[in-house]
Amino acid sequence: MNQTRIISLLPAATEIICALGLENLLVGRSHECDYPANIQQLPVCSDAKFSAGSDSAQIDAQVKEILSDAVSFYNIDKELIKSLKPTHIITQTQCEVCAVSEKDVEEALSQLISQDTKLISLHPDTLSDILKEIKEIANTLGVAAKGNQLLEDLEERIDLVKHKLKFFPDKPKVAIIEWLSPIMVAGNWIPELIEIAGGTSLLADNGKHSPYVEWQQIYDSNPDVLIVAPCGFAINRTLQEIDLLLNLPGWRDLTAVKNNQLYIADGNAYFNRSGPRIVDTIEMLAEMITPKYFNFGYEGEGWIKFES
What we know:
Layout: E1 6-8, H1 11-19, E2 26-29, E3 46-48, H2 56-68, E4 74-76, H3 78-84, E5 88-92, H4 102-109, E6 118-122, H5 127-140, H6 144-164, E7 173-180, E8 183-185, H7 190-196, E9 200-201, H8 215-221, E10 225-228, H9 235-239, H10 243-246, H11 255-258, E11 262-265, H12 267-271, H13 278-289, E12 303-305
Parallel strand pairs: 1-2, 1-5, 5-6, 7-9, 7-10, 10-11
Antiparallel strand pairs: 3-4, 7-8, 11-12
């Protein structure tokens, strides 16, 4: 039997593989895979077609133009992938913008890889989907016991937050901005994470894609806690464009702003990455939404309080 050789084209999948103790089986990664740090020495099998220096509005425009032309959003290095002789390639079908898609891989590699190469495609919409797919990857790669242990550890951390907030009387209204221009609020698994962390999610439904919203909708919903965590943006990257929000009409009238409950979080490493660190995201949300109950130590690294 051939030695397992994995190419991960999804950052969350790379983290799952490493959390299962299978890092040594990775032979290639996507350009977005950056954690844990020592995987960055792996060959890079993809790159983005949009300009890295673009601002939020320009990125959004480029994405819409590329997708409207039915063109792949990413370049795949076909010859490199062929040379790496993967037995497994992991990608996703959830979002064509988030990572290399299953369609891209199938089209690019149909003539290049062995018929025995297994394509694993992830499509999580909820927290339970994320946990289920961790288990499925572990089973597929023959480490079911490690998968069960990882899930047990993650679920124990989730239950700790739930238990501590079991009789929490307040449910502050929470909005999470996932894109700055145009404004998008965080959907998919995020509304459930907010609820677990003691809040009430605004303007997005659990398990449904993140919706574009008008600023007036956020203003009218008047969140008690406002978190800015753009997809693909670390904290410093978000700070470069935070004025897009600060200059909006009525910004200072928001309850979250007046009460100093405005936060900027790492949307790249945590909120929008559907791997084991999604539980870190729950703990971070608990620190921001219910700070009297929790201090896991993420402030300054995973999130900051922003006084506007």
